[in-house]
Structures are given as structure tokens and as C-alpha cells.
């Protein structure tokens, strides 16, 4: 197990040490999302959730005042249809004991978080969790704010507190680590094809070309 190494192989993520918390990807939060194109954040958040499922990484879903702010977006609910998100009143997710207890129950210390908005729903629990001994990774492209400045300042503040910024595709790459790990290759490849943007399009094209060559050789 890693011991908070900031460099070297042990600083990278592994599925066995990771736990994911997705915070407040709800309609009300998306309504004032201006730091990113909203559909991109939806794409990335769902891509991250699907990746966690492929690698069997425990994932905790949470909402705030969902009766007013709306239910969790359908894309995330579709990935984990059996899970009811923890609906909070606390602005700071980490002050809700149910969320903290769910994380601690996994026995894992590398905490991967994404949420709306970055400077509030993500930064507050991330900074607190670091102070309580967790290694926290903030997935910046599956999160967002009411402004680019709000997002950027939140990332800077988190970095000062010891939070590590990362993107969802970087999480996938670190969990997979080796394409010889064949068990997760089909799932990881499928997630990239669905949510990897131009990389997914290029993969589909490559698959088409390879299938054509195989047909020609037959």
C-alpha cells in the first residue's frame, strides 16, 4: 500500500486502493455551470463512473437537497441503478457522517472526487479529507464552476492543501496501467470509445480498418 508518495510508482493510482465519490451532478448545479461546456462535464463524469465500475472501484453517489435541486443526472444513475445517492443538507459533503462512514467502510485511502461546483462541493470535502489523512485526487474535468475563475481558484486552493488534480482519462490510464491486464481491457476500451471524444472516434475507425483487412485476408 502507498504511503502518500508524491512521486514514483507508488504515487500512481491503483484500483485496489481507490474509492470514488461523485458529488452533486444535479440539474440545479448544471444550470450555472460556465467554467466548462456542460455536456462535456456530463460526458466526463459518466465516463469516470463507468471506469470505476469496470475496475470494480467502490463509488459513492451524493446529492444535496435533491427535492429542490433535482435528482442525480440519469447517466450516473444508469451506471449504478441499484444505488440510492446519499441526499444531504450539508454543503460540505465530508461533514455528512454517512458519506464519511461509507468511504471508511471500503478501507481505502486514495479518494477520487468530482463534483459541482468546484469551489464549494468539491473543494470543501477534498480539503477536509486531506486533513484527515486521505490522499485526495480531484477530477477537474468531471467538475465545474459558475465561472472559469471560480474553477481555477478552487483547483489552486486544493493543490495548496495537498489535493492532486487529475483528469478522468488519467484515472483510467493509471488503473489499467498495462494492456496485458486483459480482464479490464474490453471494458476500459469500451468506455474510451463511448466517452473519449476524438480518441473514441479514432478507435472505432481503427476497428473498422482492422475488420476490413481481416475480411480481405479470409
Automatic annotation (TrEMBL):
<dbReference type="GO" id="GO:0016787">
    <property type="term" value="F:hydrolase activity"/>
</dbReference>
<dbReference type="Pfam" id="PF00857">
    <property type="entry name" value="Isochorismatase"/>
</dbReference>
<keyword id="KW-0378">Hydrolase</keyword>
<feature type="domain" description="Isochorismatase-like">
    <location>
        <begin position="19"/>
        <end position="168"/>
    </location>
</feature>
<dbReference type="InterPro" id="IPR000868">
    <property type="entry name" value="Isochorismatase-like_dom"/>
</dbReference>
<protein>
    <submittedName>
        <fullName>Hydrolase</fullName>
    </submittedName>
</protein>
<dbReference type="InterPro" id="IPR036380">
    <property type="entry name" value="Isochorismatase-like_sf"/>
</dbReference>
<dbReference type="InterPro" id="IPR053152">
    <property type="entry name" value="Hydrolase_YcaC-like"/>
</dbReference>
Amino acid at each position: 500500500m502507498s504511503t502518500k508518495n508524491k512521486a514514483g510508482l507508488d504515487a500512481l493510482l491503483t484500483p485496489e486502493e481507490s474509492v470514488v465519490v461523485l458529488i452533486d451532478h444535479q440539474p440545479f448545479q448544471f444550470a450555472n455551470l460556465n467554467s466548462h461546456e456542460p455536456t462535456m462535464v456530463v460526458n466526463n463524469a459518466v465516463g469516470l463512473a463507468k471506469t470505476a465500475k469496470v475496475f470494480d472501484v467502490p463509488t459513492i453517489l451524493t446529492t444535496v437537497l435533491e427535492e429542490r435541486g433535482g435528482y442525480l443526472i440519469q447517466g450516473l444513475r444508469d451506471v449504478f441503478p441499484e444505488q440510492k445517492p446519499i441526499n444531504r443538507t450539508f454543503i460540505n459533503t465530508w461533514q455528512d457522517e454517512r458519506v464519511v462512514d461509507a468511504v471508511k467502510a471500503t478501507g481505502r485511502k486514495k479518494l477520487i472526487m468530482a463534483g459541482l461546483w468546484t469551489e464549494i462541493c468539491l473543494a470543501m470535502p477534498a480539503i477536509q479529507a486531506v486533513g484527515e489523512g486521505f490522499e485526495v485526487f480531484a477530477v477537474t474535468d468531471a467538475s465545474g464552476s459558475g465561472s472559469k475563475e471560480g474553477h481555477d481558484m478552487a483547483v489552486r486552493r486544493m493543490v495548496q492543501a495537498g489535493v492532486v488534480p487529475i483528469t478522468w482519462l488519467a484515472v483510467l490510464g493509471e488503473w489499467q496501467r498495462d494492456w496485458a491486464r486483459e480482464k479490464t481491457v474490453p471494458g476500459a476500451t469500451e468506455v474510451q470509445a463511448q466517452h473519449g471524444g476524438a480518441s473514441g472516434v479514432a478507435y472505432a475507425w481503427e476497428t473498422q480498418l482492422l475488420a476490413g483487412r481481416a475480411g480481405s485476408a479470409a
